[in-house]
Amino acid sequence: MVQNINKGGDNMSEPKKARRPRRTRPPVAITLPSSFTVKGNVLTVSDRQVTDLFKTVKREQTVKEMRKHKSRSTRLSDAFQMVADAKLDIEELKDELEQWRDGMDGTNLEMSFKYGQLDEAIDLLDEFIPHLEELEGRDGEVEFPSMY
Q1: DSSP letter at 3?
Q2: Contact predicate 81/135, CB 8 Å
Q3: Which residues are within 8 A (CB) of 83 and not within 5 positions of it... i.e. 6 or more apart?
Q4: Which end of the chain is more exposed for a tag (fewer CB within 10 A), N or C?
């Protein structure tokens, strides 16, 4: 362990800085031509096949890189779309639980623990919906400054 002495005379150990993991490109799935051969660890294809494979790989990489560089307003619109989708999902879940609970009515299960759990879950989901409704349609309120 390496120890440093600071100006006050106290011994302090200095932890090593953690290295950031190396960024790698995501793998790209390519379809090999039907006329390729493998001998040992060597893949043999024609010049034309290599050119076609390169176009496929380059196109896939370009599409993936373009996904990263969306404008701020587009990313905000996407986030608001996710909010709208989440609201729909929560409403569907609430409807499912209400149907489950309604199916228990009239079967002497109204006082059961499960019925109480369903009521609590429905009430919580019902509380979330107004908060999400407040956010719907507000994405046009934010105006981002231009770069220049």
Answers
A1: E
A2: no
A3: 132, 135, 136
A4: C
